[in-house]
Design brief:
Blueprint: E1 4-17, E2 23-39, E3 44-46, E4 52-61, E5 72-75, E6 78-88, E7 100-109
């Protein structure tokens, strides 16, 4: 699959434990190649005390990656948060198994 490179920002357990016996995590930035990037059309601006703009995109991977709901990605120079988590992209009606999909979003305040 052709595509582009995105950066996956996630936490990984080290071999160390803290003073309570819990794993110590470190932040890792992993590049992932051959990712298809699709915009979700229709950014929305919400009217609250502070107007915000929410931008969403979808990433398609050629295999399961292990993406969690607390992870983030940098795509085309912009950092996004993961919405939910990674989902299986197979149909279930055949052996077709192209990989996984994840939806991302970014919320920004709009100057008024």
């Amino acid at each position: 699959m052709a595509g582009e490179t995105v950066t996956w920002h996630h936490r990984v357990a080290t071999a160390e434990l803290d003073r309570y016996g819990k794993p110590v995590f470190e932040l890792i930035d992993d590049p992932i190649n051959s990712v298809l990037v699709a915009p979700n059309l229709g950014d929305e601006v919400t009217g609250t005390d502070a107007d915000t703009s929410s931008t969403r995109i979808t990433l398609y991977f050629n295999e399961q990656v292990g993406i969690g709901a607390d992870d983030q990605f940098t795509v085309r120079g912009t950092r996004y948060e993961v919405n939910g988590g990674e989902a299986d992209w197979s149909s279930g009606f055949s052996n077709w198994d192209p990989g996984s999909v994840v939806q991302l979003s970014r919320t920004e305040y709009v100057d008024g």
